[in-house]
Amino acid sequence: MASAPLGQLLPSCKRRRVAAHTPARTVVCINDLSAEILKEVATYLAPPSRILFAVAVTPPSSPYEIIMARSRSRKQKSPSIAGTDWATLDFGQIEKELAAKLSDEDVRGALLHINSANKVKRLFLTNCTNITGAALSPLRGSTTIEQIDLSLVGLSENPHLNPKPPISCGIVLPILDSIISNEALCKLKYLHFPKAWRLMARQKSTGLSTKFPDLHDFILRYNQMLENRGQVCCLKCNQVTPQWLQPTIAWNNRSCYGTQRNFCHQCSNYVCRSCPTEDDNVDHHFCSACEREYCEMCVPMAECSNCRLSFCPSCFSHSCASPNCEMKLCGDCKVANECDGCKRTWCEGCHLRKTYMCEFCDKICCDECSEKDHINGVHYCDARYCDNIACSSCLIEQLQEGKLDCMTCMKRAAPLIKQLKDEIEELKEENEELHKRVRNLEERKQSLD
Q1: Nearest C-alpha neighbor of 160 from the set 124, 213, 196
Q2: 3-state SS, residue 249
Q3: What's this model's pTM, rounded to 2 decimal places?
Q4: How far is the C-alpha of 400 from the C-alpha of 145, rounded, in Å?
Q5: Which residues on neighbouring strands pair with residue 281, listed in sequence order?
Q6: How many CA atoms lie within 13 A of 1 on its CB side?
Q7: CB neighbourhood size of 264 (10 A)
Q8: pLDDT tens string 165-215
Q9: Phi, then psi, of 329 in degrees rounded to 5
Q10: What are residue 119's phi and psi, to 5 degrees?
């Protein structure tokens, strides 16, 4: 029997190519997830983000849009993803950058999704600086809404926005009118307008502007609606508050025009000014920085030691530079009274002892900076018949113009002039040195060419 060839008996030494087993990729689309999973995911989001997420995964209600959306979603998502408790909706709970990008369509979709006209009691459009106001259309005729904050800033934040936000008084006022027109069912008790509206309407009320929409007239209608409800009771002592302490929007006060008065922005309650507490009487104070009113039980107010205006603690960020002084200063007073050298600020009492203001150019300099940098300081002349307070530059100008007749001031100006001359000579020498270097560089360039 013939034997088989050796090559057939031994296994082949060549490597066999084995196709790699590649498992099929499983692509999970968010539209394929169950409503229960999406609802669980939504619980980790801030409330406004939860609504926006629910709007994004919920097919639209229009029959045509539902047909078009079938290719993108195989199952209807439950509106309960967003939750059901929407008494308060504050867009300040999401990132400021995100809120600033939201359009009218985004906010309107969120309000429609949660049935805001019948559920939302308090609406704060914090940081929604990209909307025109058309987003509020779902609130037309609402008999549930109690508070609407259109200032676009949070509590204790500067109401001045730059650039001016596009929110339109002409778009929003008709929506607000539809709410307050039904006085029997209307529950609206608090409105806070954008600063830009209040400035323009205040000018119109004083006859300086005729181009701004009629916010002033709306304020009068709103106040009349509040008055028609009758007097409110203090929520602490349950006593009827006097007429002059009834909640209203200021319309005849230039400093707080268009802001809600006799209403605490922190606890959203009416608190009378004679309600007894453990220490003193409860009072309402208007913060001149964030332009909101607070009761003392929520926000103990403080007074600027210079301008005597009241401010909430969050708006007070400056203290007197004197180490043993505990006085506070507002931002405006700090800028107006700070030393041009070290940028420190003193209260009114310490300011008179620590700083001098030039009577010619209003430059402010503290005694330490004036002593340290003599030529750039502000100095007081203590001569018998002279009370000049001048900086070095103004003192020299007065001397050059022949307006300086005090020998003490002249003597003080003399070394300053000498110091300036020395500095000028030094600058001339530096200039000559630079000219030499330029000439050397030009000569080297010519030699290389």
Answers
A1: 196
A2: strand
A3: 0.68
A4: 70
A5: 276
A6: 2
A7: 23
A8: 999 989 999 999 999 998 889 999 889 999 888 887 665 555 444 445 588
A9: -130, 145
A10: -125, -40
